[in-house]
């Protein structure tokens, strides 16, 4: 849980939000505390999903020398106050703006410091802070009680629209971060070198790999009768098959990216991870990625985004 210094930095009223997020009192379906809890659940569900090709899961560290499942869990829990603060700030501002973008960025950078402290310096969820954080802000805007449009929508002001959430998050992402230092992250270097969009473009385009790839793949797998674990693995593979993953590019260049994309397609073409042929193809994909020391971390972040949006939709349906 966050330190007192962090709570003070992120804004004093966050303390009451955290008390809700820790389970000391009931929370509304789309409150700031509940959104933060959902974000953490999505991150942990992604980390624990097994078997994932060359990623941290219940079997081990995949291609990562500085990460394991315990570290991933600590990282996720350390970010709960960050996600609550992102939701609360977006709800207070009420609409996408340059000011909101700057405030969210400041909160995200503080959260990144907390993550690094929790992990002993390992980057477990830097990309997820950006991706999930923007979606959390989008939900907060979409469900804001002050919105007259939502108040008159069929079903009431607590109904969620995942497409609208992604649109709002994209609008925030399109504003420049005026106070950011020049970024020299692994993902940013890969994005520039290989001329791909990366996480920034994914957000600005409205998270198509979560909304238009991950969610449909997840729903289609469930409709075929697959168990939840296999459905989520197949959703990850669908994302991998088309994503220009800067994590793969950073670690193994175009050879790593092509290995991830083609290998994921081979698993899906073989019937998915639940079939015998699909499992053989999945094992081969993992061996190839491990031999390249490559890990599809960008796809993993977008799977977490997919799971987050799926949770919102399921809660909405149950309330209906």
Automatic annotation (TrEMBL):
It comes from Paraburkholderia tuberum. This is Probable 2-(5''-triphosphoribosyl)-3'-dephosphocoenzyme-A synthase. Involved in the formation of 2-(5''-phosphoribosyl)-3'-dephosphocoenzyme-A, the prosthetic group of the acyl-carrier protein of the malonate decarboxylase. GO terms for molecular function: ATP binding; triphosphoribosyl-dephospho-CoA synthase activity. Belongs to the CitG/MdcB family. Its EC number is 2.4.2.52. The keyword Isomerase does not apply. GO terms for biological process: prosthetic group biosynthetic process. It catalyses: 3'-dephospho-CoA + ATP = 2'-(5''-triphospho-alpha-D-ribosyl)-3'-dephospho-CoA + adenine. It comes from the Bacteria. InterPro entries: CitG, TriPribosyl-deP-CoA_syn. It is an enzyme of class 2 (transferase).
